[in-house]
Amino acid sequence: MALATFKGGIHPPDKKELSKDKPISIVRPPKKVVIPLVQHIGAPCKLSVSIGQEVKKGDVIGASEGFVSAPVHASVSGKVVAIGEFPNAMGRMVISVVIENDGKEEWTTLKDNPDYMNLSPENLKEKIRDAGIVGMGGAAFPTHVKLSPPKEKPVDIVILNGAECEPYLTADYRLMIERPEEVVEGLKILMKVLGVSKGFIGIENNKPDAIEAMKKAVSKESNIQANIQIYPLEVKYPQGAEKMLIKAAAGREVPPRGLPMDVGVVVQNIGTAIAVYEAVRYGKPLIERIVTVTGEGIKNPKNLLVKIGTFVTDLIEECGGFTSEIAKVISGGPMMGFSLYSLDVPVTKGTSGILVLPEEGVVHAEDFGPCIRCGRCIDICPMGLMPSMLSVLSEKGFYEETKDYNLFDCFECGSCTYICPSRRPIVQLIRLAKSLVKP
Amino acid sequence: MAEIKKEHQLTVSVSPHVKSEETTSRIMWSVNLSLLPAALIGAYFFGPRAVFALTIAIITAVLCEHLYQRGMKSKITINDGSAFLTGLLVGLNLPPSVPFYIPVIGSFVAIVITKQLFGGLGFNVFNPAAAGRAFLLISFPKLMTIWKEPTAAFVQMDAKTTATPLGILKEEGIAKLMEVFGDKTNLYTELFMGHRAGSIGETSTLALLIGAAFLFYRGYISWHIPVSFMGTAAAMAWVFGGKGALFAGDPIIHLISGGMILGAFFMATDYVTCPSVKKGQLIFGAGCGFLTMLIRLKGGYPEGVMFAILIMNCFTPIIDRGFKTKVFGFKKPDSKETKK
Ligand code: SF4
Ligand code: SF4
User: Fold this and answer.
1) Which domain holds residue A382?
2) Cβ A361–B276 below 8 Å, yes or no?
3) Strands annotated E in B121-268
4) What is the structure's pLDDT at B333?
């Protein structure tokens, strides 16, 4: 059977071998954590602690204000020593809470729910919201919002994104191997919240052991009726992009500028599913996550369980430091991640990986050539756009004209820039145009 | 903590942070390499004069690009292999025994007039080498149609002049062609191997196909243009190519003679001057095939590949506009809505 997939896409070297066989390990507890109060897309949180206050793990330190928002919790027990603006990974100053770790690892009182499957969908959703869960693949969109489709958009499928199509990253892979049952439980909760009967898990075919593990977990007696299917997907970037994943697994095409719910689908990340399970089953808020620390520039690549607010420097140290003169540190994957200005920035809910590239691995912004009209970018653009035209128009200052070439349908996956033999900074030119014209 | 930061100067740049190995110059030099078999066969059959013409054409092309870019104070890009390729193609498209100024003029027209004056690589409308050849054919009709017999004897400088198979076909018909080559099998074999009169690089179908196979293998060209080009030409040759009756033509002769193979695989596929959407490439190729046969069968020249490609080059921008790609998730009925 042909593997499920979409049209277009690229095959960058996946480099997952660096970290894929490293079981998830726990980082040494940091001495202090810096927890930004905005870690998601949406309204910032309202500070709910003061300097000097003692907090326990799981205490709310930033309460969510407004619907599109998610609360933030203390990830260590200890004392609040500072509140103020600190740089986040993007280099922006954001209001953050600094907690000094007392090392006691004391939890706030958590509410256990062994019988969680009998809770009402509303009740489940509330727990997910209170736990501060956001999409953990990088976008960090509050999960409960995604779980509240408007009435006129009925949802009938939940898809878990196990593609992890970004090169290097292995966090979701490790979760699927090590904690498949929890992934399935999380999916079942998500299905219950949305009242749907179909759950798909899409996994790229280069992770046969993850597919096996997940298949085994869903075939358990108690899960048989849950109607969950595992979809092996063709190995191709960006297989894990929402629209591509939906096309591959459910055969539906999200209309331009539409949302998955327009075709009755909600997509969630593997890490998110586990966070949902933990929130609902144990009442645990989202205060830690799996981060793949990898790249040719790091001594011992690892998959780490990291407390939110831990500095990137601590993770680097945990992995034995750099191998040589390093050139670039990226938060996220090499295709869509962003490079860090400084290593003294905290891990947040959306940090899926820290990628360290040595000098040799870095493509510098050298001068690029003209578009030779080779058509490669057109053939591979997963959105069916003409990146060559977009880049040429933007380069020449014809920003309005880029709209004729569907500028705003580009989701900046970077495939075109990757493939371009003329090394044109296509995505950069597209972003420039986007910032200068109205949709 | 602070030490780590001080020690390391971080490069900050936008995603994506990895790039494929493919570069423009790698592609161009590979295409040059793929033409090597054809050039060697040309040298084998037509001797030192052919080598001379090729060399002059290449040197002129590279030199013109260098001087022009220096004059314009722009970046000098002769290392990307594209000027070399244009020169090589100009050379391969020449009759074997032209005086030295012919390749000089051809490469000059190709590089300076056709490529650089239009803005350089990526901006030219016409295929430079095709334009070079067309210019020469119009300006020096005599010199450009003196065809030497392939001798395969490297020392023999003055081979007899003769006509190309297409020329014979046009002027005297298929019967004469049979007379010259013996029987059909022999005719096909000679055309396929390259033992016939013609331009330096166009005679050996085999050598060209070896190069084309390499380009396919590397993914540098796709089937769309060659197949639609040659498919259309073959169909027309079959239907209209016969004397007197319809459906009596010989498509094979037309495919493996003249500049068909060189044109369809190496020149019509030029990235810059062909449409970049695959569907558009099918139209482009079909147009090339149609025009080639129109010229060969009805026009004043025995050969029409170059002119066909040049004419279709004019349509490339229109084809590109007419055949935009299908945007993901886009459905016809709401075309208005998505436009906004
Ligand atoms: S970045 Fe945009 S234009 Fe480029 S391949 Fe991705 S979706 Fe297409
Ligand atoms: S890949 Fe680069 S050179 Fe090729 S068409 Fe696209 S932008 Fe132009």
Assistant:
1) 376-436
2) no
3) 147-148, 161-162
4) 52
